[in-house]
Amino acid sequence: MIPQSFQYESPGSLAEAISMLQQYGEDAKILSGGHSLIPMMKLRFATPEYLIDINNIPGLSYIREENGTLKIGGLTREAELEHSDLLKQHFPIFADVTKLIADPQVRNMGTIGGNLAHGDAANDHPAVMMALHATVVATGPEGEREIPIDEFFYGFYMTALQHGDILTEIRIPMPPPGTGSAYHKMERKVGDYATAGVAVQITIGDNGVVTAAGIGLTNVNPVPLRAARSEQALIGKPLTEATINEAALYASEDCNPSSDLRGSEEYKRSIVATLVKRMIHQAVNRANNS
Hints:
Elements: E1 7-9, H1 14-24, E2 28-31, H2 37-42, E3 50-53, E4 63-66, E5 69-73, H3 78-83, H4 85-90, H5 93-98, H6 104-109, H7 112-117, H8 125-131, E6 135-140, E7 143-148, E8 153-155, E9 158-159, E10 166-173, E11 179-187, E12 194-204, E13 210-218, E14 225-226, H9 228-234, H10 241-254, H11 265-288
Helix pairs in contact: 9-10, 10-11
């Protein structure tokens, strides 16, 4: 199939793009990387009358640290995340996740902002943002507003972005010493949606006690899911096999996978438990070597 007819717009500024969104109303869609929207348009699951391409807007692609906060522009490509020295040094989880996203062609165009704005629990970045306790910046007619990641995903393909909003930035606290992070997903083949995925960031104090933890789960819930009970099972305790096993058990119990061609509900829960254990160990190894 091919998309229905639409009017293409290419604004040169953020203000112009927001004005177009207001002018065209619910009939307009934002195009950034396009790797989620275009396939939906070809299948006519999405039928916008106006397509607003924001790729020519300057100043929306960057990776930088400011005052203890990592800032990533909404138009930053997956390939830029994959090769950033700043991210490799402080957030190795980004190297984990980007190499698992589709293929180089997709990563050269796909954007982190589009990945999050799509609101798909099967995408990889939502779980990573959960683990990193990120904040999303939406820019709209009234200016900027910050949305904590736990308040961003509302339902199936639904986010806190309001009509006229554009996701312009992601903000992540820079990790303290003794922090490590890791992500992995099980997939049937390269480029497939995850059977299940787990993102972990963990901070270990000098006394060996966990001082902070973030765990996000991919594609085992209708919306991206924080494994909150698993985090609490770790925080304030020495990291032992018993506490790790407890965290893994809670994650497998608290997710809500559905049986499909990728596996049964029971199989997916077992994958979650296994990945939580492995990613905690990998994050801790990175913390110890940081």
